[in-house]
């Protein structure tokens, strides 16, 4: 009997299948330090216990995307070890902050299947939950992945494409218990711009850029215990090791500090697409568009819906070509909700 795990192929999935992912992980302050070493992350709520306490939290949480990466990484051996590409996200919610000392684990349910016309690959939709040591769901999201078939003669499953929300409603968002921005210190946060200063339709060029190197992306991918072959094995993808999409997300989010320093907490993920592959040597730049705003009913806290676009050094605000397809310079198109002081 084989002792090793070859990973699941498209024909190994079925609707309703629940996957309990291995290796829980206890996150520590070291997780934050390494995250901030990998990315120019500077949002005050995730940098300072004192700042977090002044905003009503017991201490500084682990960065929202760091928690996402930990939960995501658990799923890779069961979902995307044999993936061609991670295609998109929807209905993502951060339900509770993750603090140093919390232990996270993940499970996923298969909610959609569709074999591609080439008969060699198919798309798998899963709903993933991240839980802490108290069995509380801290993160949930849907993602879909293109996965290879091992047996090309395996019959195609019945096509099931889940009906997913195009965007979360403000009422779907969860504001962390105790969060209060009524005494928010804008000077310490780094910028004076508050929720009321942003207008729907406004675009922001985040100006700065970071050239991605092999060493940093491989360190990050190992940190999240992401074992996808395309990120490490050149024999699996001879055109280059594919940069983990989460690395691009975190880099773009960190770059967005310049112009959105007060978009402190990500609480909703409406959608996302890794539009083009990213390889070592590419320079990531970012721009944002304000898509919507909403009140939360919590003192001093507003919700802002943002489109975050990462490019390979391309011109800001160029998203799609005349044919309607993404510009070849666009790496990431992410639609999310964040909390901001009013």
User: What's the quaternary structure here?
Assistant: single chain
**Uncertain runs:** none
What's the order of the H and E elements? EEHHHEEEEHEHHHEEEE
- Gyration radius, to the nearest Å? 20 Å
List keywords for this structure.
alpha+beta, 32% strand, 342 residues, eleven-stranded antiparallel sheet, globular
Notes on the structure:
- The radius of gyration is 20 Å and the shape is globular.
- The longest helix has 16 residues, at 64-79.
- Strands 1, 2, 3, 4, 5, 6, 7, 8, 9, 10 and 11 form an eleven-stranded antiparallel beta sheet that branches.
- Helix content is 18%, strand content 32%.
- It is of the alpha+beta class and 342 residues long.
Secondary-structure map with pairings?
Blueprint (H helix, E strand, L loop, with lengths): L17 E3 L4 E2 L2 H10 L10 H6 L9 H16 L3 E12 L8 E13 L5 E11 L5 E12 L37 H4 L13 E9 L2 H10 L21 H11 L1 H4 L4 E10 L8 E13 L5 E12 L17 E12 L1
Antiparallel strand pairs: 1-4, 2-4, 3-6, 3-8, 4-5, 5-6, 7-9, 8-11, 9-10, 10-11
Brief write-up:
The protein has 342 residues and is an alpha+beta fold. It has 7 helices and 11 strands.
């Amino acid at each position: 009997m084989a002792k090793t795990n070859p990973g699941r192929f498209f024909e190994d999935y079925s609707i309703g299948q629940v996957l309990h992912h291995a290796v829980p992980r206890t996150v520590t302050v070291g997780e934050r330090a390494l995250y901030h070493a990998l990315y120019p992350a500077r949002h005050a709520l995730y940098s300072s216990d004192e700042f977090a306490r002044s905003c009503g939290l017991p201490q500084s949480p682990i960065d929202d995307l760091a928690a996402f990466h930990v939960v995501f990484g658990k799923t890779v051996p069961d979902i995307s070890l044999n993936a061609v590409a991670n295609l998109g996200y929807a209905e993502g919610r951060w339900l509770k902050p993750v603090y140093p000392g919390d232990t996270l684990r993940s499970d996923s349910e298969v909610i959609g299947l569709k074999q591609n016309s080439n008969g060699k690959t198919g798309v798998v939709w899963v709903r993933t939950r991240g839980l802490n040591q108290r069995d509380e769901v801290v993160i949930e999201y849907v993602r879909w992945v293109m996965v290879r078939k091992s047996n090309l003669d395996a019959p195609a499953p019945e096509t099931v494409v889940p009906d997913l929300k195009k965007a979360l409603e403000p009422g779907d968002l969860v504001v962390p218990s105790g969060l209060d921005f009524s005494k928010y210190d804008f000077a310490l946060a780094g910028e004076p711009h508050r929720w009321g200063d942003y207008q729907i339709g406004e675009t922001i060029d985040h100006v700065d850029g970071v050239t991605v190197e092999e060493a940093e992306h491989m360190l990050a991918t190992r940190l999240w215990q992401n074992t996808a072959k395309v990120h490490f094995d050149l024999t699996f993808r001879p055109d280059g090791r594919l940069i983990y999409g989460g690395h691009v997300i975190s880099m773009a989010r960190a770059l967005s500090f310049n112009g959105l320093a007060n978009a402190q907490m990500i609480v909703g993920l409406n959608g996302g697409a890794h539009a083009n592959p990213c390889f070592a040597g590419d320079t990531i730049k970012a721009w944002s568009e304000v898509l919507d705003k909403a009140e939360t009913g919590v003192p001093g806290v507003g919700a802002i819906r943002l489109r975050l676009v990462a490019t390979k050094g391309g011109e800001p605000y160029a998203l799609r070509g005349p044919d309607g397809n993404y510009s070849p310079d666009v790496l990431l198109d992410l639609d999310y909700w964040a909390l901001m002081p009013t």
